[in-house]
Amino acid sequence: MAQYDVIIxxxxxxxxxxxxxxxxxxxxxxxxxxxxxxxxxxxxVGCMPSKALLHASELYEAAAGAEFVTLGIDVxxxxxxxxxxxxxxxxxxxxxxxxxFLFKKNKVEWIKGAGKIAGAGKVEVTxxxxxxxxxxxxxxxxxxxxxxxxxxxxDVDQNRIVDSTGALSLxxxxxxxxxxxxxxxxxxxxxxxxxxxxxxTVVEFLDRITPGMDAETAKTFQRSLTKQGVQFKLGSKVTGxxxxxxxxxxxxxxxxxxxxxxxxxxxxxxxxxxxxxxxNLGLESVGVETDKRGFIPTDHFKTTAPGVWAIGDxxxxxxxxHKAEEDxxxxxxxxxxKWGHVDYNLVPSVVYTSPEVAWVGKTEEQLKEAGVAYKxxxxxxxxxxxxxxxxxxxxxxxxxxxxxxxxxxxxxxxGPQAGEMIGEYCVAMAFKAASExxxxxxxxxxxxxxxxxxxxxxxxxxxxxx
Amino acid sequence: MADIMTPALxxxxxxxxxxxxxxxxxxxxxxxxxxxELETDKVSLxxxxxxxxxxxxxxxxxxxxxxxxxxxxxxxxxxxxAKAAPAPAPAAKKEEPAPAPAPAPKAEAPKAAxxxxxxxxxSAQRIVAENNLDGGAIAGSGKDGRVxxxxxxxxxxxxxxxxxxxxAPSAPREIHxxxxxxxxxxLRQTIxxxxxxxxxxxxxxxxxxxxxxxxxxxxxxxxxxGFEKSHGVKLGFMSFFVKAVIHGLKHVxxxxxxxxxxxxxxxxxxxxxxxxxxxxxxxxxxxxxxxxLSLAGIEKGIxxxxxxxxxxxxxxxxxxxxxxxxxxxGVYGSLMSTPILNAPQSGILGxxxxxxxxxxxxxQVVIRPMMYLxxxxxxxxVDGQGAVTFLVRVKEAIEDPQRLLLDV
Lengths: 466, 408
Known about the structure:
The structure holds two protein chains of two kinds. Chain A is of the alpha/beta class.
């Protein structure tokens, strides 16, 4: 007789949401987590602490730079990095405790230690003190998430050469910081330190930033970041990094070929992406094989082994906390014999820089490649009253809709609080809304959300306010 | 607990509209008390309480479309049905904890059934309104079967491509002051559709004649008291016309036939539809085997059908299977008209107002009570000769009722 209905390995957004849902549905569930706190990468060393620093550094820059002066507020702020890090840590602690509370509320057990599959229906847990126990369960959910991808020649020492975890806790504001990789994580953390005073250079292998983002949107976004002082070296690859006592010297050469150059920086942040964390999980004990990149192949979260499921960053799809959360709910509902489904086309992406970038659905490039006839409606924030009042007129909202049915196929927003605005379009698209459905719905005035509506009107050529 | 179900609606009727609830949730009701009125393409029908009790909740609100067997509401049965107990609102279905997880969960769990009448997206609402589409008839591809703009556009295109579809106005006509827009009842929509279908399908034309009513009127005057005393029903003209029509149909069977594809079906039974005007519109109940009825039987039958029609009590069976129709515009004063066929029938007789007119009889001008007769017929099955002959037969029988007795 199995002790558990479901044991989840990993207590991040995938794992803890799976556990809560399992508890709600009356399943006997446990989470095995090797970290001393719950919440995984997201809460401990990812989304949450980075947002804490992004928020704080944005306000610091507003006060230190021209923005407050424009508003008629004359202050001379002084950076207290220790306090900034402390408030970050306090928020993270509160959030991880919150999950412990939710576990108790939903009668989910938290088993501390490193989990490993030990054959069908068996999970071996190695506790911190080295003691090993084996638990029996009807279902196993792998939710072990991901870790920063390494780059040959660049050894992360978390001292001078850091990954995203290290970059959240630098002991000082670097004079110079080189970010390897112009993805979301690199640009967010690069923004944090630039606002606090670092000179930031971003080196990117591709000839564009934020791969996967709509190209026009990325271009506008890059222009904003450049204006803020971020320097970009696109089409460049880092071939080596030598960490010294107080600086790093990086060898960078053009991807297209040409002379290599050496860049000196106080700190280097390696942020070229993340890879699934699927090693040493005992997958072989149940005959589950990963693909070449380490992902676990699944069919509706089912692996090739009966009773073994996988969700979140370890399976295909965007490596995002909210995607893992969706996987979690659907997976547990399937385990409970219910209906569960995730539409990956409707998983939104957000870059929490300033301006923010948010999008859902298809980019123009994807639509062109798929040969879909589409229409575009675009509205600049410079014509939006709320943005104007706040002196935050960068960016635009763009709605892409099917040329025939008018169904919204993609929405791309670059501008302040874009992340808060994109949810409207996730709902609309889940209901297969047409651009006209947004255009014909009353939006509050004055808000940035009106820019989205005006963009939607633009799809059928009746934008009214620009 | 007893579910209140949508009853069988009759052959070829697949759905009904909930017209009116006479009770509301929480009301106490007695057995056989009318709870809800349904409207179908053909009739209105009433659904009565199956027992004493309290109407617990209403599942199909007014305006909803229901199919036979669909749940309309639920009755909490109770002997003290007259006591109105506050009925609980329908409890939202709670998520039941799975008692034990299935060891091997199903790969594909069933998808939630689409909502019966999902709301239209704002864009779809506009398209439906601007183009007079039936929003409820559009198959929705959105979440839970909702109708998206793409679905509405597809429905619009399907209509544009349908050969017989009438051209729709590009936009709904503006409503001015002192005008009002009212949605057509289902009955009115059906009347409209069927009349137009008859016009589109049949090669329809009308032939006229006139009949001298003197003989029938004299006969009626002579016997009306005795007739009423014997049979308990007044002797009217309709019974003579029904007899005369059957006399004509027997002589010209084409008029009692119908076209079915490339075949003609001749009917050796005489079920005469009698058009009755009601508050809600025209209905045509059918007098069964009218050839086997006496004059008194015909009068009684028509009287009963007319009363049922006006009371909204016609059953499906009362309306189906007629072979020929008589329409009497004369009761409203019509002097002459061209009736439209009641498809798939091939003939319809129009009766009109009796009016005294100077007639030339045997070289003399005399005043006679005259009625114009019109026969609209489907030229595909009835030849001109047959149609005229039929109408002449009717005329002769009315002008000389003894022919009916002798069958000549």
